[in-house]
Write a structure and sequence with these properties.
This protein has 157 residues and is α+β, with helices and mostly antiparallel strands. It has one domain: Lipocalin (Beta Barrel). It is built from three helices and twelve strands; from the N terminus they run αααββββββββββββ. Strands 1, 2, 3, 4, 7, 8, 9, 10, 11 and 12 form a ten-stranded antiparallel sheet that branches. A hairpin with a 2-residue loop joins strand 10 and strand 11.
């Protein structure tokens, strides 16, 4: 009788798992993504192969964070310098509030952004883990002369 009760509880708990939890079980790289990340640099790569650093996230940018939760949700915090020279949260009208994520096949990350102004967008950058604490997200170029852009992030938690 006790074995039947334990089996029943195990089956019910398994049936209650979320899509994000199933994706986590199916893709071990999901475990590597979970945590808090700090942006290090944003780089544009031209079609001729040359690159240019667009942002190196110094000063207030060093406080920016992306946090990926096991539930498949993420949040993003951005900071900017105010008129007095202090850092404060960037509350611009189109700032990202929250979103959801999932790792896809062929090393792609699905990022569904929900903005504070009500807009929603889906991005699917390529994701590559450079080492245990560094990842790179690559996006297709938005201008004809740009091949792609990438952001590098370092795990802080």
């Amino acid at each position: 009788m006790q074995h039947i009760l334990i089996l029943t509880v195990a089956v019910l708990l398994g049936a209650c798992s979320t899509d994000a939890e199933r994706a986590l079980e199916e893709n071990p790289d999901s475990e590597r993504l979970i945590g808090t990340w700090k942006p290090m640099r944003l780089v544009a790569v031209r079609q001729d192969g040359t690159s240019h650093v667009l942002d190196s996230y110094k000063d207030c940018g060093e406080r920016n964070r992306w946090t990926f939760a096991p539930s498949g949700r993420f949040s993003k915090e951005e900071f900017k310098e105010n008129e007095q020279g202090s850092c404060e949260p960037n509350t611009a009208a189109a700032s990202i509030e929250t979103g959801s994520w999932a790792l896809l096949e062929k090393e792609r990350l699905s990022l569904f952004f929900s903005y504070t102004d009500g807009r929603k967008e889906l991005f699917t950058p390529a994701i590559r883990f450079l080492d245990a604490t560094t990842m790179r997200l690559s996006y297709e170029g938005a201008a004809p002369e740009m091949e792609y852009f990438y952001g590098e992030y370092v795990r802080v938690d």
